[in-house]
Amino acid sequence: MYQYDCIIIGGGPAGLSAALTLGRARRKILLFDNGTNRNRVTQESHGYVTRDGIKPHEFKEIAITELQSYPSISISDQTVIEIKKDDQQFVVNTSNNISYLTEKILLATGIQEEFPIPQIRQYYGKSLFSCPYCDGWELKDKPLAIIAESEAHINHMTKLLYNWSQDLIVFTNGHQLSDIIQNEFQRKKIMVYTAIIKNLHGDEGNLYSIELETGENIVRSGGFVVPSFYRPNNLAIQLNCQVDENGGIITDNAGRTTVSGVYVAGETEKAGPSSLMIAAADGFKAATSINLDLTLLRF
């Protein structure tokens, strides 16, 4: 059976950053990446200094090229389906029926989105987005839609987006807003439609208008949505990692979970969205914890 110091599951910025750090620390690393990272649908990634505007696949290609400089790092596109604790080690099983042994596990599989309206996915990453810091600049001063169902999310996203564009219309998809929020938006000339959304219209990912069940068809050229997020696998549950009341994986703030030998980095930890830069920093932080723990164990 193949033996590693650490197996990293997830090839997003957190996993790639951790692999680089551990490879440079001369640890034998296996990185699993099955290509399902959620930013694969994005045309450009923003906010990562020296890489602003880079395409996600180019970002990953550069990272993998860098990792290949370190002979102790291996990369696999297999999907991990099960992890079991075996004495002081972990057995990692893949969908290809291959098993691997490792002393440490880093979970960096990220999260995935669920949308209140299925058609959103046709436009997501091209004209509809979820993070103003990532994509607000490209949509500045355009007629934008805000699609969300929770009043707290609507209030936060609308106020935030007003800095990028003041031509905003809120779509609640059948949910009502309090009079306080309605009046506050009205003072800023922000319209609110509470009718259920019937359809989105556009072409090749470019949004043109939003059709409501009332028959109204409101012209918009893009916008922002507030999806719900979930972890794409139950590996943390398999490993008995403790979670908090919000579903976040409990850590020591340095990547260590409540299970000895299991670490977490990036969006996997909080089951919420993060930027490339923050996720990469989380990967670095978790990797230094892993390397320190291996050092103290073996010295």
TrEMBL record:
<dbReference type="Pfam" id="PF07992">
    <property type="entry name" value="Pyr_redox_2"/>
</dbReference>
<protein>
    <submittedName>
        <fullName>NAD(P)/FAD-dependent oxidoreductase</fullName>
    </submittedName>
</protein>
<keyword id="KW-0560">Oxidoreductase</keyword>
<keyword id="KW-0285">Flavoprotein</keyword>
<dbReference type="InterPro" id="IPR023753">
    <property type="entry name" value="FAD/NAD-binding_dom"/>
</dbReference>
<feature type="domain" description="FAD/NAD(P)-binding">
    <location>
        <begin position="4"/>
        <end position="283"/>
    </location>
</feature>
<dbReference type="InterPro" id="IPR036188">
    <property type="entry name" value="FAD/NAD-bd_sf"/>
</dbReference>
<comment type="subunit">
    <text>Homodimer.</text>
</comment>
<dbReference type="InterPro" id="IPR050097">
    <property type="entry name" value="Ferredoxin-NADP_redctase_2"/>
</dbReference>
